[in-house]
Write a structure and sequence with these properties.
2 copies of one chain form a homodimer.
Chain A (H helix, E strand, L loop, with lengths): L2 E5 L1 H8 L3 H8 L7 H13 L14 E6 L7 H14 L3 E6 L4 H13 L4 E5 L5 H10 L3 E4 L11 E4 L1 H14 L5 E5 L5 H16 L9 E3 L4 H12 L7 E4 L2 H13 L9 E6 L12 E4 L2 H16 L8 E4 L2 E3 L11
Parallel strand pairs in A: 2-3, 2-4, 4-5, 5-6, 6-12, 7-8, 7-9, 9-10, 10-11
Antiparallel strand pairs in A: 11-13
Helix pairs in contact in A: 1-2, 1-3, 4-11, 5-6, 7-8, 9-10
């Protein structure tokens, strides 16, 4: 009766005269193994054709999708895009959250080691450098979805055109006749914050509008900072007639701040966001915003990781998908009310 | 050199003198196999110890979480709850969508067959009866998360207390002094729609308020129907002073309808929703709503499916977790403006 014969780590350990954990350490490329031991184990691994990863015909049929937090407003869009591609390829999508902390991240890495994975899609910018390294050692293909433009990982990366989005939103307000346009910025440590701000400034400059640093409020992409940032802007001696909040959550915070001040959107003040989260078409009023193609980014990440898993090459180390202005009801010409 | 010896379906097929698909059909419990063939194949499967599913000590370390559509506003909360429990148990969560169509559903079932799974959590009410049956035949533990109260599956089910939620929301409006309270209902075919409506009617009756059928508008839980339903209510000869929309999406539609009519929430009309989706704390005004504990439902589903995977019993075939009224800024006493 024929059957698949596979050498096990236990068998290698027995033949090498070492413990099973020692063989595991060698397999996983860990440093804490004596050089002679490592050489002996590696020779046996090679002689018996031990493969940590499944061979092409015998793949795990699983891809890992890893977030910092699943409650991120981005998460569901990216999951949807990834799943659509993997599902059609008969590959399962394992979704995990590592919560930016080393405990869950290490747990996740252990879970990953305990079973096979054809590849990992990281939607996170804060994975510890040590974990980066271990992932590379495991030899599993990695693709990064990085809407924030903040990764330092040496892996194919999929982002979005943040600068062009900042430009388009500001041009839209300029075309409507606004000249005093407030901006609520994201966290300065993220490249995407800077790119959106630069796009805003480039549009003003191209239109011959003099910049005013007081019109730029500092935020952190979250709702609360849009609320307070908008209040700061509206308390200026000469407040803006439009506010470009560089995330949708901050835009919703700005709309609430304006409502509480008795100001109507868009009759009194126009508001533009950035992201196009699924729910902002249901805000009151429906939000004009810059669409990040999150589901498409997920799809491209899935296609890329499946190509890498098949041993194929990837065209470009970093791809930026186009953002797009979506005009709804939160913007109008100044003084239209 | 010792190695793990595993019998394959191909080998069984060769020895039995039948095709590989025939052996697969026997393994998967399908009916379309001649009785003698089935007996011969089953004898060989048993003789060589073929196991379709992994044995207890050798589990897949994977749980499947299956949605109709991942873009459902519920999805991310449930994923978050499930992942928190599975992650801590070193089990991966494979997220899939079957899109309510038989093609992808069958694809999903094939994907599931191609690898092991310790259990399936279904967040869907529309899985084809044929697929139900096949899942049962596969012998994989199933748990249903069923916020809509619509399942007919013979499996442990986790829901929420819809009737009590409908009661609590209506009592809140009554306590604020409202007497003409509109209701926007969900799809009549879902039990949860009926339960929420019955809770609304029970609260009115307990307060001695005469019901008025014209105050009940038909919706379908989606945004658009909240918008049109609210317009219908406001055009009554004696319009309501408060609207209880029995889903958050419909409540956001109602708020937008009121804004377009120049009515302020809550000064002119109060609005209550149902679900407590993550984004409604950022609506303008922040929404008073009935919280469905979706993440907790996901956690309980994960714990239940892991118990079933270990061969343990489940206490109760159907558990309903408590809903809870969350008071924010979309409700006030009538005439307060």
């Amino acid at each position: 009766m024929p059957g698949a014969r596979k050498v096990t780590i236990t068998a290698i350990a027995r033949e090498a005269g070492v413990s099973v954990p020692t063989v595991s350490r060698v397999v996983n490329g860990r440093a804490d193994v004596a050089p002679e031991t490592r050489a002996r184990v590696e020779e046996l691994l090679q002689r018996y054709g031990y493969r940590r990863r499944a061979a092409p015909g015998d793949r795990a049929a699983l891809v890992d999708l890893v977030f910092n937090d699943i409650d991120s407003p981005w998460a569901v869009e990216i999951i949807r895009g990834v799943e659509e591609v993997t599902h059609a390829s008969a590959v399962g999508t394992v979704v995990s959250a590592i919560h930016d902390r080393s405990g869950p991240a290490r747990q996740w890495l252990n879970n990953l080691r305990a079973r096979a994975s054809d590849g990992v899609i990281l939607v996170t910018s804060a994975l510890e450098p040590v974990l980066h390294k271990e992932l590379h050692r495991l030899g599993v293909p990695i693709v990064v979805v990085d809407p924030a433009g903040s990764t330092t990982l040496d892996a194919p990366t999929i982002g979005a055109t943040n600068w062009a989005g900042g430009l388009a939103a500001t041009e839209h307000l300029l075309h409507q006749g606004h000249r005093r346009i407030g901006f609520i910025a994201g966290p300065p440590r993220l490249l995407c914050s800077r790119a959106r701000l630069d796009g805003y400034r480039a549009a003003l400059e191209a239109a011959g509008v003099t910049g005013d640093d007081r019109l730029v409020a500092q935020g952190d992409f979250y709702h609360r900072s849009g609320f307070t940032g908008c209040n700061t802007l509206m308390e200026l001696p000469e407040p803006p007639t439009a506010v470009f909040a560089s995330s949708d959550q901050m835009a919703l915070g700005a709309i609430e701040a304006l409502r509480r001040r008795g100001l109507r959107v868009p009759q009194d003040v126009s508001v533009v966001g950035f992201d196009d989260l699924p729910e902002v078409k249901w805000s009151s009023p429906p939000l004009t915003t810059v669409r990040q193609p999150l589901a498409e980014m997920g799809k491209l990440a899935a296609r890329t990781v499946l190509r890498l898993a098949r041993g194929e090459d990837v065209d470009s180390p970093r791809v930026e998908l186009a953002t797009e202005l979506v005009v709804r009801s939160s913007t109008a010409a100044p003084g239209e009310g």
